[in-house]
């Protein structure tokens, strides 16, 4: 598929996310499927079968299901090992109260897995709705124009501060990178900048696979054993 087809595919995935109930644990699955389909074209033939949604991975405190995971066998007598993990989140309601929690959640979830698997490649994908309502006194109030831009600007600045896990900064709680998908649920299409978003997403995935290649070069040689 070409660029226009992938934009349409991403748009359908985002519509699925917005239609899903906020209580649905699989709400992010449409975007997870999109990412898996784009990753498959970038990985050696023996790796895509190990990509999965809601991949269970042990952490220091508890096991967590990651939205997208590449969990590849370590060896005949060793348990499977997470090599690549993606956390998918969205801010679709109460943005002023949600964005600080999203940053705190990110630090906590990646720290837990990095304590056991410090070499794992971890990245973050978030959907930001510029039409997200806020409930005040039991009434949902919708933003006017781009009034959420300053708030989301602070959130994106926080993401940039956390997206620098590379030598010599290997601190737990950091990620290798992030992709922000900006939508506006008041409009059709949802994507605020379809072409720019696709280009950023492709660059994000290219960098993700390159980080995996640098961290786990044997995975890209034969069967990686």
Tell me what you see in this structure.
The structure is a single chain. The protein is an alpha/beta fold. It has a single domain, classed as ECO RI Endonuclease, Chain A (3-Layer(aba) Sandwich). It is 39% helix and 22% strand. Strands 1-2-3-4-7 form a 5-stranded mixed β-sheet, with helices on both faces. Strands 5-6 form a two-stranded antiparallel ribbon. A hairpin with an 8-residue loop joins strand 2 and strand 3 (81-91). The radius of gyration is 18 Å and the shape is globular. This is Restriction endonuclease.
> What is the architecture at the second tier of CATH?
3-Layer(aba) Sandwich
How far apart the termini lie comes to 33 Å
- Spans of at least 5 consecutive residues whose pLDDT stays below 50 are none
Using the coordinates above, name the CATH class: Alpha Beta
List the total number of helices.
5
Taken as a percent bin, the fraction of beta residues is 15-25%
**H/E order of the elements?**
HHEEEHEEEHEH
Total individual domains = 1
Radius of gyration from CA coordinates = 18 Å
Assign an overall shape: globular
Protein name: Restriction endonuclease
Organism: Thermus tengchongensis
Structure at a glance:
This protein has about 220 residues and is of the alpha/beta class. Helices cover about 40% and strands about 20% of the residues.
Please supply descriptive tags for the structure shown above:
single chain, alpha/beta, ECO RI Endonuclease, Chain A, 5-stranded mixed beta sheet, two-stranded antiparallel sheet, globular, Restriction endonuclease
